[in-house]
Amino acid sequence: MARLPRTLARLVALPLLLSPKEFRQRFGPEVQDAMERGLQEADQRGGASAMFGFWGRGMGDALKTAAHERRMASGGWFGDGNPWSDLGGDVKYALRGWRRSPGFSLTVVTTLGLGLGLASAIFAFADGYLFRPLPFPGGDRTYYVRDPHAQIALKASDTVALRASAVAGFGFVEWSPASLGGELVVGDRRVSPLVYEVSEGFRNTLKLPLLAGRDFAPEDHLAGAPRVAWLSHRFWRREFGGDIGALGRPLRIERVQAAEELRIVGILGPEVASFDLNNSPPDLIAPHRGPPQVGPNRLSFPLVLVPIGVSVDQAAQQISAALQAVAPAADGRPREVRLRALSAAQTAGGRPTAKVLLTGALLVLLLASMNLIHLLLSRSMARALEVATRASLGASRWRVIRVFVVESLLLGAAGITLGLAVGKALSVLISANVPQWPTAGRNLALVPMLFDFRVMAFAVVLGLAVSVAGGLWPAWLALRRPMTIHQRTAGGVNPVISGRLSRVILGSELTVATMVIVGAVFVGLGIYRYLNQPLGYEYKDRLRVFVSSDGGGPVAGQEAGAAVRAVRGVTGVREAGFERSVSRTRDVEVVDRAVDTKEISALGVTAG
Amino acid sequence: MRKTLHAETGLAGPAQHIMLALGTDALHGYAIMQSIAERSGGQIRILPGTLYSTLKKLLKDELVEECDPPKDADSEDARRRYYRVTKAGKVAMKAQTERLALLVKLGKVFS
Predict the structure, then answer these.
(1) Least confident of A142-151, A225-234, A576-585, B11-20
(2) Do B29 and A69 touch (CB under 8 A)?
(3) How far is the C-alpha of A76 from the C-alpha of A68, rounded, in Å?
(4) For residue range A486-523, what is the model confidence (pLDDT) as tens digits?
(5) Do the beta carbons of residue A458 and residue A545 sit within 8 Å?
(6) B18 and chain A: CB distance < 8 Å anywhere?
(7) Chain B hits for A30, Cβ within 8 Å
(8) Is the dihedral of CA A388, A391, A393, A399 positive or negative?
(9) Other C-beta atoms lying within 10 Å of the C-beta of residue A394
(10) From the CA of A401, how many Å to the nearest CA of chain B?
(11) Touching check for B81 and chain A: CB below 8 Å?
(12) Is A123 helix (H, G, I), strand (E, B) or coil?
């Protein structure tokens, strides 16, 4: 039995193998002796269980000690025990480095700034199409109601009937183009705003974010009620300079017959532009006044909010059943509706563009990041002597790494700041140049660009990741081979990588950095040209004239033809003809917006 | 508080107990372990790994030194070495004891 404690005590040599040789040789036999004595004493005191208990604790303690001694022998991660001591010294050292090599610092900051700026601006565009939910509660439960037999829409009479049916709670609200019938006087300017109307209770279904002001009241929808409207965020910024005093301000609508007052009661938030895929976003949103128009050929694009707990299929079945009950088909076919998600309708057109642009921007950022890291790597080669000196003076690994990381983070902070400024400027530029009408079958104006907290967080996280990587990688390499890349000769310390080669590497990296900058400029130009590709005609110079009968329905062909001829006679009109329209009303396209709309209005038709 | 004491004197945890166990005597490692356990009524036990790691640091800081075995030493084991507190160690422990005494005095408000 006396041999067992000795045998067990000898096993303590195993964990001690992890400790430095010096410690093992100096204290190993003593540790073994103390273990043996302790085991014997435990055996006498409490038998085998006490002995094995002591042995287990002793082995664990020896393992912990071995690890501790190994860490201490290598200088320890934190050297003096405080990982943050003299952090200010590292910051000052990094700033002095900027002064010593301003070209290098400027290149790094510019490369990171441009890469981040481009990526964040493109992210601001792509976020709305790819990641951001619709900016109102229940956006994922909002659907367009479609009649599969009519391909795209319901009849207006169907919508009106559904509002009074068993599924009226779903909403069936509408967002449809309208006209003021004249020009709006803003200060000393006259503008022709694009106007959309919303049906009563629109915000009960789609709670659009209002920057300021109030919802439309039921009395605002009455026929003959005083005109009120919300300003779109874009129109408010453009025409009112973002002045909140625009709220409540009465404006005058100039018409040939009689002027009318319009009062601004709300300002729409920047998150919403429009819900109409086929036209430009509105400048004003007004309540539809009077009873809904339900002509035989009038179509409707109602929106519903499906209640929580009701599936899309269930909602479609319930609406179909209600429609069958209130408006059965004349030919006896069962009425049927399909629902299309509003979010899909809003983003489907812009998604491919957003994906392509975001991928391109991230690739540019990746290239910029790699180049930046290579710049820092090549610089760390040149600083190998400095690292070796620090290490030989007793600097811990952490202190050496910290110098690199602090320098990289400072450069990163400057790059991120520049990136945010560039990103904001680019986003404003892109936003101002995104076509406000459908281009190549896509309407990129449906989802506004927002350079907000999300985008800034995206840029900061990316910038910090690049900065940390750009600090850690060179530091790690420098730590691994501070001595191996140097050989001591009679003439002193000569780096294996010569100063000339270092300069060549640095020069090539600067060249790549310049190429990245030039590439970013070209990508920017490409985006600009993509968003402004010619349509074959100047959309802005076109004017739409609505010709309708007194009852609101379509006019006969002869009557419309006469209207076209009359419009052609107006001063400034180069050409006029019919436009194909889903609404089947007789729209006349006028090729020159410079004409005086009063002259066209005087013909008894509506110019918008 | 422990961190402050450590920073001021370089003595904390196992180091203090080892110094107190040594006192004015010369002891080998296992005797130090036994002394600590006896003095604390078995509440504090230091295991061999921690003991010798701490002794190594105390030797390096010159608070403890290796010495010849006392005349009445009962073992001939060649592995066994003896240690005693140096003058610097006594000064450090005196200062530490005074600080702890002050702490005990101040701490009476809680008793």
Answers:
(1) A576-585
(2) no
(3) 9
(4) 444 334 444 445 566 666 767 776 777 777 777 777 77
(5) no
(6) no
(7) 28-29, 48, 52, 79-81
(8) positive
(9) 10
(10) 25
(11) yes
(12) helix
Interface residue A584 vs chain B (CB under 8 A): no
Query: Which residues, 6 or more positions from A382, have their beta carbon under 8 angstroms from its beta carbon?
Result: A499, A502, A506
Instruction: Answer for the pair A338, A317: CB distance below 8 angstroms, yes or no.
Output: no
ipTM of this predicted structure: 0.82
Strand-pairing partners, residue B65, are B84
Q: B3 touching A, CB under 8 A?
A: no
Rounded CA-CA distance B56/B14 in Å is: 12
Q: Chain A, 33-52: which have a CB under 8 Å from a chain B CB?
A: 33-35, 37-38, 41
A599 touching chain B per CB within 8 A: no
Residue A390 corresponds to which amino acid? Answer: R
Instruction: Report the predicted TM-score, pTM, of the whole model to 2 decimal places.
Output: 0.60
- Strands A227-231, A260-268: pairing is parallel
- Per-residue CA distances from A353 to A123, A176, A340, A530, B101 (Å): 12, 26, 21, 10, 76
Q: How far is CA A399 from the centre of its chain?
A: 38
B77 in contact with chain A, both atoms CB, cutoff 8 A: yes
**How many CB atoms are located within 10 Å of the residue A537 CB?**
10
- A210 confidence band (pLDDT: 50, 70, 90): very high
- Contact yes or no for B107/B20 (Cβ under 8 A): no
**Which of A19, A24, A27 to probe by mutation at the B interface, max B CB count within 10 Å?**
A27
Helix ranges (H only) for A288-396 are: 312-326, 342-347, 351-382, 384-392
B38 touches chain A (CB under 8 A): no
Mean pLDDT of A281-287: 93
Kindly calculate the radius of gyration of chain A based on its CA atoms and give it in whole angstroms: 37
Q: How far apart are CA A34 and CA B34, in angstroms?
A: 10
Q: Which helix (H) or strand (E) holds A6?
A: helix A3-10
Which positions in chain B touch A31 (Cβ < 8 Å)? 29, 48-49, 51-52
Which of A26, A41, A62 is the closest to B48 by Cβ?
A62
Q: Which residue in B11, B3, B7 sits closest to B63, CA to CA?
A: B11
A66 touches chain B (CB under 8 A): yes
> Which of B47, B50, B52 comes nearest A30 by C-beta?
B52
| Residue A418 · residue A112 · CB < 8 Å | yes
Those residues whose C-beta lies under 8 Å from the C-beta of residue B85, and which sit 6 or more positions away, are B19, B22, B23, B24, B63, B64, B93
